[in-house]
Write a structure and sequence with these properties.
single chain; 326 residues; alpha+beta; Glutaredoxin; Serine Threonine Protein Phosphatase 5, Tetratricopeptide repeat; 2 domains; four-stranded mixed sheet; two-stranded antiparallel ribbon; Thioredoxin-like_sf; oxidoreductase activity; DSBA-like_thioredoxin_dom; TPR-like_helical_dom_sf; Putative DsbA family dithiol-disulfide isomerase
Length: 326
């Protein structure tokens, strides 16, 4: 059974959740469990290098990011509660982050560890990253801090891979997949398509794992999942994210009509009207009775200030599908 944990390394509940998951799995007698960490960002605007947290705690953007860890509490109450619970989980002292810093490179290191050494190495890196931020009060955005974490976890090649930019595309795509699948808070545990949000007590986690492990979840082919994730992002008004996920499909399955239609919609929504026009013209030429493709082509031409060229397509689309006339 694979347990995916979507979490940010600057979220204290992620560290608490890690300890609680470890307790839930102690003495586990069910099927073997593999824990894999996936990226989530509670503060995407956090800077590189980091800035002292004490100076920015009054910034409303930071409060909003902190509240994403526990939406039911105010940021101030959240910090007080976190300190008390962290102590109960054996974290610290000392305890408490000192920096508001981007976690992007930390997520790159974590993804690379999984890719190169599997779940065990990744877990060691995650532990080192969380400790560096919450116990050692270090700036996670600094390369020397992550180099030290990699070395301490036995990830010998980690520093060099980070310096080469490794893991960047993987992390950016994973963040989009998380968004597409509905991950909204850190941490979120996902097993067989079922999710458990927040750092729940060990008994709740164990009950969740027992239920999720016994469920049947048919995984779709990777290409189909990618297409569905791209469509979800487009529905969430993130056409550029959708195009990021579509890029490999366009390269490998560029003749697939569904892939091209979704790309055309994303081009249109992101105002890449030339690309939308070229894609839609080909789709209409292949299937002249596709009223939606024809309607979208007309709208694309209309947005480019070419009403004369748009009108025939819009008129024909409205005849085939009267609702397009409104």
């Amino acid at each position: 059974m694979r347990v995916e944990i979507w979490a940010d390394m600057v979220c204290a509940w992620a560290y608490i959740g890690k300890r609680r998951l470890e307790r839930a799995l102690a003495g586990w007698e069910g099927e073997p469990v593999e824990v894999v960490w996936r990226p989530f960002r509670i503060d995407p605007a956090a800077p590189v290098p980091g800035e002292p947290l004490a100076e920015v705690l009054t910034d409303p953007r930071v409060d909003e990011a902190l509240q994403a860890c526990n939406p039911d509490l105010t940021p101030s109450d959240n910090r007080t509660l976190v300190s008390r619970i962290a102590a109960a989980e054996g974290l610290g002292p000392p305890w408490g982050p000192a920096w508001r810093a981007s976690s992007h490179d930390a997520h790159r290191l974590i993804a690379l560890a999984c890719e190169r050494g599997g779940a065990a190495l990744q877990d060691a890196v995650v532990e080192g990253v969380l400790r560096a931020h919450f116990v050692d009060a270090l700036d996670l955005s600094r390369p020397e801090v992550l180099d030290r974490v990699a070395a301490g976890a036995g990830f010998v090649e980690g520093a060099a891979l980070l310096a080469e930019g490794g893991g960047d595309e993987r992390v950016r795509e994973s963040l989009l997949v998380g968004k597409a699948t509905g991950v909204r808070t850190s941490p979120t545990l996902v097993v067989s398509g079922r999710a458990l949000t927040g750092a729940q007590p060990p008994e709740v986690i164990r009950e969740f794992l027992e239920g999720a492990g016994g469920s049947t979840h048919r995984r779709l082919p990777a290409e189909v999942e990618r297409l569905r994730h791209a469509e979800s992002l487009l529905d969430q008004r993130d056409p550029l994210g959708a195009l990021t996920l579509l890029r490999p499909l366009l390269d490998d399955h560029g003749d697939d009509r569904g892939v091209r239609m979704l790309a055309a919609r994303a081009y249109y929504a992101s105002a890449q009207l030339g690309r939308a026009e070229a894609t839609l013209e080909r789709l209409v030429a292949e299937t002249p009775d596709d009223s939606y493709a024809r309607h979208l082509l007309g709208r694309t031409l209309q947005r480019q200030g070419r009403p004369g060229e748009a009108e025939p397509h819009l008129a024909m689309a409205s005849v085939m599908t009267p609702s397009y006339a409104s």
